[in-house]
Write a structure and sequence with these properties.
heterodimer, A: mainly beta, seven-stranded mixed beta sheet, 11 strands, 0% helix, globular, B: mainly beta, six-stranded mixed beta sheet, four-stranded antiparallel beta sheet
Chain lengths: 113, 115
């Protein structure tokens, strides 16, 4: 298995632009998580899905952030419009529902200038 | 609600010395415990986990952790560290009830191994 695949690995964009981050979970995993990591705030859970359904989006910072999971093998995190304070590493992780650990992707390093 | 405390934000240690990274959690329900490692510019990787059974759990790269229910601790240890162990380590308990359980990540401990 190729693991959790995230794209792009790096993204540099100008303030005000739309940014879309992509994630392909491990085949057969039915939970998917989006995290944001910064030096100041550490790892923050933004949103997670079970069986493609958003369960908890209380970590999404504001309405500029949205996430979708149209099918079991693909999810997107969109920021529109982007702001410099959104600069961070965004991780996607997947797991089976239950007492199992998560498998993380390599992350997308987002820089908003 | 579940919470986790990693008592040390940074731990410097010399190569071949032993190390202990401390983790305490709070929980009133069944808990499962995980340690993750993050090498520079990489994602998080599962190091080891405790679900049930023996309280001493062995993981990858020579790490082990001991579950102590009375002290609500799950400290990570390695008897002799290498330069390559330099990374950030995250303790993550999971409250599991019914069909749902989510990991709660600590703030991390940066282990710096010096030659």
């Amino acid at each position: 298995d190729a693991g959790v695949i995230q794209s792009p690995r790096h993204e540099v964009t100008e303030m005000g632009q739309e940014v879309t981050l992509r994630c392909k979970p491990i085949s057969g995993h039915n939970s998917l998580f989006w995290y944001r990591q910064t030096m100041m705030r550490g790892l923050e859970l933004l949103i997670y899905f079970n069986n493609n359904v958003p369960i908890d989006d209380s970590g999404m910072p504001e309405d500029r952030f949205s996430a979708k999971m149209p099918n079991a093998s693909f999810s997107t995190l969109k920021i529109q419009p982007s702001e410099p304070r959104d600069s961070a590493v965004y991780f996607c992780a997947s797991s089976l529902v239950g007492p199992y650990g998560y498998t993380f992707g390599s992350g997308t390093r987002l820089t908003v200038v | 609600a579940q919470s986790v405390t990693q008592l040390d934000s940074q731990v410097p240690v010399f190569e071949e010395a032993p190390v202990e990274l401390r983790c305490n959690y709070s929980s009133s329900v069944s808990v499962y415990l995980f340690w993750y490692v993050q090498y520079p510019n990489q994602g998080l990787q599962l190091l080891l986990k405790y679900l049930s059974g023996s309280t001493l759990v062995k993981g990858i790269n020579g790490f082990e952790a001991e579950f102590n229910k009375s002290q609500t601790s799950f400290h990570l240890r390695k008897p002799s560290v290498h330069i390559s162990d330099t990374a950030e380590y995250f303790c993550a308990p999971m409250n599991y009830g019914g069909s749902q359980g989510n990991l709660i990540f600590g703030k991390g401990t940066k282990l710096s191994v010096k030659p």
